[in-house]
Design a protein that fits this description.
Elements (H helix, E strand, L loop, with lengths): L1 E6 L3 H11 L5 E7 L2 H10 L5 E4 L2 E2 L2 E2 L1 H6 L5 E6 L5 H6 L2 E6 L4 H14 L8 H10 L6 E6 L2 E6 L5 E5 L2 E5 L4 E3 L4 H7 L5 E3 L4 E4 L3 E5 L5 E4 L7 E2 L5 H9 L1
């Protein structure tokens, strides 16, 4: 049997996932956790399961906090409504990342991936995880931003550019500018390469919003929506930039 734990703070979602997992006779749910505090206690006191299904945003924090405090050798399949945590998820033993609402075929695919990859001793080594990370490159399709006490989902297709200012990375839409939790280096890894390109140390632009490109005396890009600062292409990036434009 594959011992499994579900981490989910919404009871209906937890019950639904448990019902879906009941279709896999080889899986045994041995625990259900609803908070970071409960998760830290559970993983500190119990034998760690081979497989963990975990939501990310819990009532008292992020589920990442559990595994940063109590490291696990089990595989984690994250189940969440937000895909902006993909990069960090794969750094914490994740083998898959299922966006809610979870589809039967996606769940089945994730379980089969686990079964085909699991080593003979039923634990995941650090090198195994690194290999998975290299194979699995997810692209960011939505960004969660905070506005006062509210949260807003912004589709990446609505973002003209990302830019850094005073050590904070912002995203620009036609409506306004929003701060994000990413670094530009992280965004380079998870944005769709055909759409987004890092023109310099400060800007990543979306090709759908390029308004004009000046080539003399240097490459300068005008976007439909951008901050007041000029967007120039670094000299060492010009060749890659031109290839990206036609690619």
């Amino acid at each position: 049997m594959i011992k499994t734990v579900i981490i989910e703070d919404e009871k209906p979602a937890s019950r639904k996932l448990e019902r879906m997992l009941s279709n896999f006779p080889e899986i045994e749910v041995v625990g259900k956790i609803e908070s970071v505090e409960e998760g830290v206690a559970w993983f500190s006191e119990n034998e760690h399961p081979q497989l963990i299904f975990s939501d990310i945003v819990l009532g008292d924090g992020l589920s990442f906090d559990i595994f940063e405090k109590v490291p696990t050798k089990g595989f984690i399949i994250y189940t969440t409504a937000f895909d902006q945590y993909t990069l960090k998820a794969f750094k914490l033993n994740s083998i898959d990342y299922l966006l809610k609402p979870i589809l039967e075929e996606d769940l089945s695919g994730a379980v089969e991936k686990f079964k085909s990859f699991i080593p003979s001793n039923n634990t995941a080594g650090s090198e195994d995880i690194k290999q998975l990370i290299r194979k699995e490159k997810s692209t960011l399709s939505r960004v969660l931003v905070k506005i006062g006490y509210n949260l807003k989902i912004v589709q990446t297709q609505e973002i003209s550019c990302f830019f850094s200012e005073n050590k904070i990375v912002y995203l620009q839409t036609d409506e306004r500018v929003y701060p994000s939790d990413f670094t530009l280096d992280e965004l380079e890894d998870i944005l769709e390469e055909k759409k987004f390109f890092r023109v310099n140390r400060q800007f990543i632009i979306n090709s759908d919003y390029i308004k004009n490109i000046h080539t003399s005396p240097y490459y300068k890009v005008e976007m439909e929506f951008q901050p007041q600062e000029e967007i120039t292409v670094s000299r060492d990036r010009v060749k890659d930039f031109k290839e990206w434009l036609v690619g």
